[in-house]
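User: I'm curious whether this sequence folds into something compact or stays loose and floppy. Could you predict its structure so I can see for myself?
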Amino acid sequence: VSSKYGPVPIEKISQGDSVLSSNGYATVSGISSRYIDEELYRLTLDKHSTKDPLILTSEHPVLTDRGFIKAQELQPTDKIAVRINRYKSQPRRKALDLSAYIPLSLMCRNERETWIYGAKGKKWPRFINLNKDFAELLGIYLAEGSASKNGIVFSIGQEEPVLTSKITDLVYRVWGRETAIEDDSNSKKRWIRVYGNALKYFYTEVAGRGAREKRIGKEIYSFLGKHTASKILKGFWLGDGSEEPGGYEITTTSRILVYQLRDLALGLGMLLNTEYSLVRRAYRLRTSKKNRRQF
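Assistant: Here's the prediction. I'll summarize afterward.
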């Protein structure tokens, strides 16, 4: 379901959410469900994954180039209307209050800084601008980052010096902190660590916990503009992307994130074809090389 905060699985829609209707965005006034005993129709669009088809009852209306058509009357040649939220202008700059993500029992703050109770000398800027640097770092975190015991960590390969330099540079520019690099002597793994429990709380909230639950938080998604949306895609591609003979490919195991990334791309005028790998249990988003400028 398309909402003001990006695509949301229908089972996670709640009363009061703002979702897209045929007359623009409307507030959900109630949630209901019922048992049905009739034939269901599975709707899959061309160049989209068959993993998550749209399942409809026979009478459900679908907007096509022929107008609203019942699901049971759809033809393979019909063109289905989809939402494309193009970014027409950059919204006003959004500043995130880091203190709002720290548990109240641990949080200390003043007008400019925030810190965790007892963590002397480890103050953080209280307000963080949602700018291009922040967006690109978030994209890399969505691909390669996770919360650790006392901060956050990016897991990459030792043979990725450009990505290593990019992460360390962005962390300093966004958070004003140095990183600690640790190489595994028994493998080619590299961990880039940023210490600070404030970051652990923050990124867990705005980006999800665990690879399959990664997402772009509502407080960020709704304030993205053309440049910041593009930087999230670029950052994610730097972390989990590859250049193939026919174009570019990015991969994620998160069902929510795959549709958010596809939605961002549509807003930038770029179609990402969606596939699902049963072997890897992961989604792949692909686009042609004509979209090189986005990556």
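Summary: The CA atoms of residues 101 and 202 lie 5 Å apart. Helices lie at 132-144, 161-175, 197-207, 218-221, 226-240, 255-267.
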